[in-house]
Amino acid sequence: MLISITCRAEDASDLGFLLHKNPAAVNETETAFGRVVVFYPEASERCCTSALLLEVDPVRLVRARGAHGLDQYVNDRPYAASSLASVAIATVFGTALNGRSRDRQERVGEKMPLSAMIAAVRCRGGAGLIERLFVPLGYRVTLSEEPLRLGGEATASGGVFALTIEGMQTVQDLLTHLYVLLPVLDNAKHYFVGEDEVDKLLKRGAGWLPRHPERELITQRYLMYRSAMVRSAISQLDLAEESGECLEEADDRRAAAEEAGEAPLRLNDLRLRAAQEAVLEGGPPKRVLDLGCGEGRLLRLLLRETRIEEICGVDVSTVALERAARALRFDSLPERQRARVSLLHGSLVYRDERFRGYDVATLIEVIEHLDPPRLEAMAQVVFGHARPARVVVTTPNAEYNVLWPSLPGGSFRHADHRFEWPRPLFRDWAERIADRFGYDVAFRPVGPEHADAGPPTQMAVFERK
After folding, report:
1. Closest by CA position to 195, among listed 234, 146, 166, 230
2. What is the pTM of this model?
3. 26-54 pLDDT per residue, tens
């Protein structure tokens, strides 16, 4: 699997600085599915080419997936660029993909004449689809259909192409386009597509995907047609397109709108204080796990409690974790404080050994972001597998929504909410979870209570028997 990137211009050798790979060296990196080699066939002031060679080990790939059968070993996966190539790009060119350069930061945002050659790419949709994906991004596309060879004889191509794209692009944009669109062309991924894939797509698609004429097809293929995730991604792309903002700005605006609706109650502050009190009740625990930590607001409160020895935040969104790290001032925290807090990228619907051994786990305004069928997986992970001594859960009280004049009838408080429960439904769910996994549960109001509608937020505190 071979991909090369070429720059033909003055100071073309700066490509090595922008990719963070020395043209004078051969860089080798081992992955779970094979070896990635980066080398430079040419590196002059007028022309510089960096080549990425991915040597896929079919046996290692199959073992990593737990697959069986001869067809898993004998196929085109080691040769045609796919999601394996995307992972390789993120692995060896991750710094460039994130728009950073130690020695040439001033050139990161500079468009230059770049071309990328992919020796073989499978496209389920043909040459026309390749052009529909790359031409709107400003590329000239050159294609040749490559025949498959069986027993030394050429046969039908099977939709495999040699692809070259050329255009005035930044190095970051070129890498981003390849990272997203290679698995889209292949219409397959070599790994399970979880909820974090939405965040990856929105992060890498910021600045170009909201206005791409094939954005729905790109979103569907990238997320492997998982309807709930596709809907979530499209709704956020719609918001970014309508406002003309990048995806991160749009997300900020939506969060601000939600907070503005709650501003008269200062509800978020009340929630955080209530969660903090529930965590510290009976004496500070040694280890606290904040599942769905977002931007780390609860982590910052808990970090002030010096008797807590370890605080860990987990989120499926890498963007949220980056913001949490900035909010916590990781770079400037005293060494003793820095040793107490950590951030993990993970999902609370998959078993994870890192979640075990904590005294308290919190899920503050988290469960309503899960599709109802995934609540069972979350319960198995948190209450069945991790089994902390105490679990603190908060979620909106749907009955209170009628008291917000700015909230249209039948609407949820946040565009990403999958449901909002009235108090009887939340109580029923929590009691069933407690009975099933060996916990006692108590319910508490958060925020000012209305005589009929109750509090704006409802809390359940689970104590392991």
Report:
1. 230
2. 0.56
3. 999 988 778 999 999 999 999 999 999 99
